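ligand=manganese (II) ion
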Amino acid sequence: MRLCRFDDNRLGLIDGVSVHDVSPLLSTLPAMRWPVPPGDQLIANLRRLLPDIARHKNSAPAKPLAAVRLLSPVANPSKIIGAPINYKDHIEEAKKDQGIAHGREIKTIGDWGLFLKANSALVGPAEGVALRFPDRRNDHEAELAVIIGKTGSQIPRAQARDYIAGYAIGLDMTVRGPELPSFRKSIDSYAVVGPWLVTKDEIADPNALDFELKVNGETRQKSNTRYLDFNVDRLIEYASSFYTLYPGDIIMTGTPAGVAPVKPGDVMTVDMQGIGRMEVKVRAA
Ligand code: MN
């Protein structure tokens, strides 16, 4: 199933080139009072909601997919986790290019650990990326985004798939420079997730997905998640060895070689096997 958040926080079920508006089902989510539990309320209840969504599809009004504004399918993650240097060819390009390395010694993800992107950076594809410092190098990083489905801590990699709700495409936008990654990668709109959430039953193996990023139609990144150093299962084990994972948490799994600058007016297009296509415009902030 492909679920999107669109327009004014509507919930949509995608069927081909149509979006069925199943928003009335959101009223069945439990009422919440302060302090709200960590995590995204929709994703926390998704397993229970999915059969209702399927049942309501045919009675739900449909709009053309091309006519809706796609937001991030997760509205309220407790955190967005990033995986640095997780493809060998990206490690090699980072070692050679001081525009990426900025004097840092490029090691391995096992040496560096993970980083967090601010939740306030999260947008969907329709919102686009607003370059805050257009005079600096602002790079695209196309990545598989894993959406966590239930709370877990110290999850062994053999059980990692039980904790996944689904998958999306992520753009871990980055301003290059000497600052810490969590700062440079947390500018408003620098965490793009979309175009929708594909439930995990639709993707047999997240560690074998072709993907490609183009800028203005020209290929810049092209790889397959089989080249991840820490694959999806190991990333969940690794992240949860430090953090409790909550429903709606997003893991951006890392980017392959080909990272390069974008400028206002550019259009980034990412295709990912099993998920679809996400188009994102770049503008000046
Ligand atoms: Mn990245």
